[in-house]
# Entry
Amino acid sequence: HRNGSLRLESEAVRTMPAAYNEELDKAGPAVWQSEKAGVNEMVVRPDFRLVAAARWDKRVELLDAKTAKSLGRLQGHEGGVLGAAFERERGVLATCGEDGKIALW
# Structure
């Protein structure tokens, strides 16, 4: 959207286990809002409970996938965070940045 928000309505979000997404279905799709529009990539952890946003401001923002509320930010890159990925089995988060570094969280 033009106001810097991202509305998620994909089938991947809708295929969460029924016990976890019952309230989400009642409330409708979550709206993801950041105070800055500088997000390079958003990735969802394999258990569909956590979203990581690779941000231009050198941080990785962690969000609750159900409520879209921020859970905190990870700092460690010396430049913008370009990408992020969750490892499938353990959910370890890997990020890469403009500083040429890869961080494991």
Notes: The chain has a mean pLDDT of 77. The two ends are 30 Å apart (CA to CA). The longest strand covers residues 39-44.
